[in-house]
Structures are given as structure tokens and as C-alpha cells.
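Here is one chain, start to finish.
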Amino acid sequence: SSGINAEYGDILSSQLQLGLLASGYPVLPISRDFSLTENGRKKKKTRTTFSRAQVFGLERKFATQKYLSTHDRILLAAALQMTECQVKIWFQNRRTKWRREKAMMKQGNRNNLLMSCDSDHMIQ
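Its structure:
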């Protein structure tokens, strides 16, 4: 926890100095698109594109921590100028990708082991 405070302390202290943390929580941008199409249906939300710096920060955090507490999510979102929801969804999606990659590696190791065993028993 103290590492987190050191990592994001500058951003939080600058928000404190600006009076943005009166509630005790960082102020995060909220973007909601409630516009409607011609037939009265809600428009599909466009895909969010993250900057390289944001992705780098998210990946760096994910490398050390696969799950974030609410407090950690608030701090990371503030540090990367993202919403808590964006960070939460990014981590959910990244864990899914991580599990899929892990399963593929496991399957690849099995295949390599089988191929290795087959080549050991080949008649020359």
C-alpha cells in the first residue's frame, strides 16, 4: 500500500492542492453518450482508444498485480487520467487474454513434450 502511495502520490497531492479531493476521492472525467439515432435508439458507444502511455501504465501494473482493489483502481485511474470503469474493464479483458495465453502455452508445452517423446522412439 505504501508503494502505491509513493507511485501515485504526486498526482493525488496536486489534486489536493487544487481542491479536487474534497470528497477524499480523485476527480475523474465522466463521459456518457446518450445521443439517439433517427429512429429513437441509443447510438452504439464508440470503442475507447488508450494512449501508449496509458497502456504502458496498465500493463506495468498488470505485470505485478492481476486484481486491483477499489483503492488501487482509483489511484491508477487518476494517475492515467482514465475513469475507474475504464481501468476495471481493461483489467477484466486483460485477465481474459492472460488466461487464454496461459492455456495456449500449456497446450504448446504438451505438444512439445509429445513430439519430443515421439522423436526419442523413432527407429533410425
